Amino acid sequence: MPNATMITTPKRHQWLALTAMSMGVFMGLLDVTVVNVALPTMVNDFNTNFTNLQWVLNAYTLVYAVSLLIMSKLGDMYGRKKVFLGSLILFVLASTVNGMASSLIVLDIGRGIQAIGGAGMNSLSMALVASNFSGNKRGVALGILGSVIGMSTASGPLIGGFLVENFGWPSIFYVNVPVGIVAVIMTLTFVNETPSYGQHERIDFAGMLFSGLGLFSLIYGLIIKEGHPHWSWMDIRIGGWIIAGFILIALFIWTESRVQQPMMSLNFFKQCHFVGTIFVAFALGASLYSFNTFLTALMQNYIGYSALQTGVRQLTISGWSLVLGPISGYLGTRFSKKRMISASLLVGACGFLVMLNAMGPRVGFMDLMPGMLMIGFTNGIVSPLINTVGMEGVAPQQMGMASGLLNIFRQLGIVIGVVGFGLMQAIQYENYLNTHIHTVGMPSQMTTGIHAALIKAGPFSGHTIAWSKRLTETPFAQKLQSVVVHAYDNGMAAVLIAALVVILIGSLAAAVLMRKESHADVHA
């Protein structure tokens, strides 16, 4: 990477600049998951149901994904510090509105605005770090940033659980305000601006429109499928959105291949090394990060831990990021990153295999812990390294877009993993119930009603029905509960097998597509 992109900065200021960017990234990614643990409290405060509250989560996920590439391009064109800073301020203001929200409509809109800020911070942070550091320090700094990314994604249950239990659900938004203000001051003071590479270029409005609408349609279709697993993929309410998404993305590619100053250079996808990197980012999102959703449900709904207790135990995974981030960044300057990434993903595959073997009606934290340690190790090594690898050989004016692409594929991996694994889990859960519910010995009318209720509740909430006070007092309770737990275990086994396959594909992609070093620039 050309040294011209590096602006001389006092050493102390460099690390303070990294701290500012890390604070922004941590807030932006934490807010993807932290709201999960607050939903039960919100149900009571807003006097609504979980279905209506689902858009508090979906609004952020949807707008965040749609905004990533657009914010990346604006940063490349007009200065990454300016766009990062504006995104940080927008995020803080939206967090304030969310904390004060008195209705779901206000909260949903606020979450969408907050997501634009989160996308701007996360899409430009890597490029800003790369331009504020040089040499071996760049690898260490990107490693630290990667550890923050890995830790923030897995820390939602812990931080959210603590805040909600002690201060109520608004605190998960208000906590961003003081942290954000400090980050704004530090960004203004210590972060160096990058050149405005495209300030005289024409904005590719068609590219932005097609990319935004295409990603929106794809992810919206997947979100609808997640909420209605029994609807067919060919249902116009699902398939229509997904087909429209593919058409719009095809139009985006067609547009980018013909305009003189495209929003995104298609040359990115001609570089095997970069393609391997985004494969790994996708695999990491679809396996490790999406699995956190299912692991949290297992620990809270079936093992019986509170949100805070679950979060503490999940430090087994997220804690590795804090320890290994700087180390992996340093080791990446001395050894083959591709081999480190491929081997580390294999460790994660072994972790999923260990947890698959441990699954059963009496599974507890101690049974899951060895596997959790392994996937935590994988996250701690791979998440920092793909940041460094993703920036290798990328021309200075394209760094923001490269960062945005890594983020968008990681986010797509999470969405597709949650939806795809969730459908696999639901199918196995329902198949077991269909073939075993009659063994409980309940009257046929009662069996039909409870069976329908369990199917409608799905694997995440079936436990609540089976352990309800009314059913617990019946003579059939113990057998029914046994059937529900076995059904859930079958579903979790399917999730673990799917995650195992995805992470193995990621390891293979790293080994085949990545090079030991990449020196070929991706030109505009």
TrEMBL record:
State whether keyword Transport applies. Answer: yes
Q: Does the keyword Nucleus apply?
A: no
Gene Ontology MF term list: transmembrane transporter activity
Q: Which PROSITE patterns match?
A: MFS
Alphabetized, the UniProt keywords read: Cell membrane, Membrane, Transmembrane, Transmembrane helix, Transport
> Please, which domain of life does this record's source organism belong to?
Bacteria
Segments passing through the bilayer = 15-35, 55-71, 83-107, 113-133, 140-159, 171-191, 203-224, 236-254, 274-295, 315-333, 340-360, 372-395, 407-427, 492-514
Q: Note the InterPro entries from the entry.
A: EmrB-like, MFS, MFS_dom, MFS_trans_sf
Q: Identify its membrane topology class.
A: Multi-pass membrane protein
Domain called Major facilitator superfamily (MFS) profile: residue spans: 17-518
The UniProt entry's GO CC annotations, sorted and at most eight, read: plasma membrane
State the Pfam families in the record. MFS_1
Tell me where in or outside the cell this protein is found: Cell membrane
Main location (coarse class): membrane
NCBIfam families recorded:
efflux_EmrB (TIGR00711)
Name this polypeptide is given: Permease of the major facilitator superfamily
Species name:
Lacticaseibacillus paracasei (strain ATCC 334 / BCRC 17002 / CCUG 31169 / CIP 107868 / KCTC 3260 / NRRL B-441)
Organism classification: Bacteria, Bacillati, Bacillota, Bacilli, Lactobacillales
